[in-house]
Amino acid sequence: MRGTPDLKGLRVAVTGGTSGLGLALVRELTRRGAHVAFVARTADAVHRIARDMPNTHGIVGDVSKKDDIYPIALQILGELGGLDVLINSASSLGPTPLRLLADTDCEDLEAALATNLLGPFRLTKAVLGALTASAREGRGAVVLNVSSDAAVNAYPTWGAYSASKAALRHMSAIWNEELAAEGVRFLSIDPGDMDTPLHAAAVPDADPSTLKRPEQSAAELAEAITAALPALAKG
To answer: Cβ distance 17 to 26 under 8 Å?
Structure first.
């Protein structure tokens, strides 16, 4: 139930944790009793949020950069002493304003894939040993990859973002099949259209009153994590 520390002691890592849904997740998970390490690129924002929120650990890094992944993973595991849940929330639209695929530069497509697909893939691999250890200990283990309806529906001008999110969605399903025997669950969840900076960059003329609050989506994702962890679901 909301208002109860139903994730007390859970060790969670969140990427993109200083803005939009990622920040809402850090707040929601901390409120529910989790110990949270969050990752973002901007040092000032990372340090400010970590200072203002107890039970959080801020990590400066860019998941789209291959050379940042292992330092990020080492800091996550060092700060939390292990890992139960990884949430890949950091996202890139690719080109803004959004463009038709024929007008999209290869570099913009690469940027979307680097953040939305390769980043989650590399970071998951880097912390997989800790996740499987958590599952063996009976704590359970979950990787939540934040998806989008654009991963399923073909929206004109959303090509770079859509292609990367579609690949992430399918990769999540494959990971889930391959690691089911290890006790690691993979979730791919569309949180809905939210009033976030990412959505504002994509659709500048959208009416915020028609969009979900990221806090609502964060609460829904926290419930999905709880249901996916056997020890918590039984409780």
So the answer is: yes
Sheet with strand 11-15: strands edge to edge? 56-60, 35-40, 11-15, 85-88, 141-146, 184-189
Q: Is the pLDDT of residue 3 over 50?
A: no
Question: Please, where are the H alpha helices in 118-207?
Answer: 119-136, 159-179, 197-202
Given pLDDT bands bounded at 50, 70 and 90, which one contains residue 47? very high
* Average per-residue pLDDT for the chain: 92
Residue 4 burial class via C-beta count within 10 angstroms: exposed 0-12, middle 13-18, buried 19 and up = exposed
Torsion angles phi and psi, residue 9, rounded to 5: 80, -5
| pTM, to two decimals | 0.93
Report d(CA 110, CA 66) in Å as an integer. Answer: 13
Q: What residues act catalytically?
A: 161
| CA distance linking residue 189 with residue 131, whole number of Å | 19
Mean pLDDT of 68-87: 98
Three-class SS state of 208? helix
pLDDT of 192 higher than 90: no
In the chain, the largest separation of any two C-alpha atoms, in whole Å, equals 52
The residue assigned the tokens 């990622």 is: 22
Q: Please tell me the distance from the alpha carbon of residue 85 to that of residue 222, in angstroms, as a whole number.
A: 11
